[in-house]
Amino acid sequence: MEVNFRKVEDDFMKPETDTRNPCHHGAGEGSTLLFDKHTERWVVGLSDTLSTEAPVRTGLFIGGQERQTAETISVADPAKPGVVVGEAAAASAADVADAVAAAKAAYPAWSALSTAERARQMADAIAGIADDRDTDAAILSQENGKIRMESWVDALVFEIRWNLALMIADDVDAGKTLPVVPGIPVTTEVSYQSLGVVTIIVPFNWPIAILAASLPHALLAGNTVIVKPPPSAPLATTRVVQRVAEKLPAGVLNVVTGKDENMGALIQNPDIAKVCFTGSVNGGKRIMEMAAKSLTRVTLELGGNDAAIFAEDAIIDDVHLDRLYAAIFDSTGQICMNAKRIYVHRSRMQEVVDGLSARLEKAVIGYGLDEGTTMGPLHSPVQKAFVEEIIEEAKDSGATVLEFGELPGGDLAGGNFLRPAIVVDPDPELRVVSQEQFGPVIPIIPFDTEEEAVHVANDTWGGLCGSVWTADPATATRIGNQLVCGYVFVNDHGATRLDLRAPFGGMKQSGIGREQGIEGIRAFQDTRSIGVIDPEALAQMAH
């Protein structure tokens, strides 16, 4: 089975001290992981025991203890109407307060440790996380809807990002000295300090992987953390976090699931030092409004309306078309950094339309755990209705809309499935262009000049990612430097090629702050400056 996840380098897989074969690391029992350099794909053999026979039940994990609740959240299978995947504990306001108190109590001892000691404990905590990966993937596939291999990679990326954070532990405390200069008789040491208790809120689409863009960085910086998984798909994330938390000191890492009305204290409790939220733009605005009442810091990684620009000299062969297809339709289009608008030089327009069409004709829409399925359902009925609506709007406008694939029947009839679609040269005012679709539909729009392409790419509310497709590195640099976004890909786009070492985040309404890398560490720290008067310099000033 192939994994469309090309950007895992050998040295990403474990810290440099690990001597195991990285190409096999991360696979659970019965699974193997190999990179095929020819196809640029990870080839994974999974065990055959991927389905979960009984509904899954997860609890809260607070102060080193699992806690069950009388009230629970039922987690629906988005592919099978009426089917419940499992139940998650529904925290009360008192449970949330206990989680904050536990994290606060654990903070002094955790922050007092050296960074090297925290890194050692975190390395021990992540050890063996792959042992249950096949089961984690099966659960995530059922509660999320995406195909099982994407779910498996979702859990894999958690471990990769965790270990990448540990690899920069030596940089965490790297401060600087400001020496005496004329007029300033002071030597100042600038260092970094942790913040306190941090809340991390993750979305449904890639919850485990996205969590690791911030969780290990927050912990390594010396903070304690409360994780809030998505209420519509909390099960697999809760399982993974709890296994790690059980190996850390009590209260350092906690997980709370529940209904939003009981979660306010995760943002507004005065003991919360920071909230890190990944989700929609409107969700980010609500988080920011709530956090403002207590002046709580925020990092917001929100939606995007990413533009991919195909220059006149773009290489449009099978390799690049495969990359583009993945950049658009992975996870049924439900990835924040997917390509959402494709701008193609008019002379190359038909090549792109034909290339994507040929791939969509082979799409198999179905259940995420079924062998051969390449595209699962949308996660929610609301999102399905929205995507259907913007496709119909495009049809009504007179735009050419190409639809592909067959909807499944049987016990999948009525699930959140949609036929993937291409909208050719739509009016730019249509919502399929101006809004984030977050579904299996893509507008392909011609342009005539480079200036026009850059203008329309930037003429949007968001600025998460962008991409330039060209045979000329100078063209890539020239166009890329003009795109108003946080990350620019060249001849690729999306999560499959993201450098997990680099700072990641958006501009405009795509977010505030950065995750990953040392910038991701600094997001969970603040500076402390200690100035010491230099008597000799002070005396010289007196003369």
Distance between the termini: 78 Å
- Bin the strand percentage: 15-25%
CATH-defined topology of the largest domain:
Aldehyde Dehydrogenase, Chain A, domain 1
Oligomer: single chain
**For the residues shown, what is the average pLDDT?**
92
Number of domains: 2
Would you write up a description of this structure?
The chain is α/β, with parallel strands linked by helices and 543 residues long. It folds into two domains: 49-302 and 513-526, Aldehyde Dehydrogenase, Chain A, domain 1, CATH 3.40.605.10; 307-497, Aldehyde Dehydrogenase, Chain A, domain 2. The protein contains 17 helices and 26 strands. The protein has a seven-stranded mixed beta sheet, with helices on both faces. Strands 13-12-11-14-15-25 form a six-stranded mixed beta sheet, with helices on both faces. Strand 19 (421-424), helix 13 (431-434) and strand 20 form a beta-alpha-beta unit. Helix 2 (115-126) runs antiparallel to helix 4. The longest helix has 20 residues, at 93-112. Mean pLDDT is 92; it is low at 1-30 and 34-39.
